[in-house]
């Protein structure tokens, strides 16, 4: 954002290469249908609903980027939104890196959005973008926790776990996506190599740089579809939107 005379351009990267094993056997999570339409299509539409977003990069499963491209071409976006599909990596962090490398020139603000959050409202997307444009290097939508959280000493699954602490709930937030960044900050953050499965939260990488991360209000409909029960809830939300808002 170095040239104040040039309009700020925003793009979105959607990592969609994961299998989503907790949803059970079948297609990759992002390609499961919601209301007859793949979740990935809903997620892409959610980003494109913001008039600030000029380009979307979808990071597809490694074995079928061409199939994902055909799927998205069958659900075209408005002409004002460009679309690129690239194959993903073996970890989420590698997939996001590949998405960032595919961004067109001239992008200032980048959103990273989970394909498994197909119903995030455009108001949330716009709030994240606005906060980055106002000068925050990293912005995350988040909600207060409804449940008390316990810190435990981990044990094998199914074994009772000793409680070692109870964090103060009023100080905790459940984060969502899209997470927004000024592009140089996110590129610098992804130069950090994380062991194991890589980074599951891009804002966490920015924190490692010592850069500030700020939160804006999230939305209850921006939940992540991870388990079969989440699909039931998402179908209900989608049905309500179609009945009352004319949602496609």
Automatic annotation (TrEMBL):
Protein name per its UniProtKB record: 2-C-methyl-D-erythritol 4-phosphate cytidylyltransferase
Function: Catalyzes the formation of 4-diphosphocytidyl-2-C-methyl-D-erythritol from CTP and 2-C-methyl-D-erythritol 4-phosphate (MEP).
UniProt pathway annotation: Isoprenoid biosynthesis; isopentenyl diphosphate biosynthesis via DXP pathway; isopentenyl diphosphate from 1-deoxy-D-xylulose 5-phosphate: step 2/6
Family statement: Belongs to the IspD/TarI cytidylyltransferase family. IspD subfamily.
Site (Positions MEP for the nucleophilic attack): 169, 224
CDD domains named in the record: CDP-ME_synthetase
Catalysed reactions, semicolon-separated: 2-C-methyl-D-erythritol 4-phosphate + CTP + H(+) = 4-CDP-2-C-methyl-D-erythritol + diphosphate
EC primary class: transferase
Enzyme Commission numbers on file: 2.7.7.60
Record keywords: Isoprene biosynthesis, Nucleotidyltransferase, Transferase
Record-level GO BP terms: isopentenyl diphosphate biosynthetic process, methylerythritol 4-phosphate pathway
Domain of life of the source: Bacteria
Transmembrane feature ranges: none
GO molecular function: 2-C-methyl-D-erythritol 4-phosphate cytidylyltransferase activity
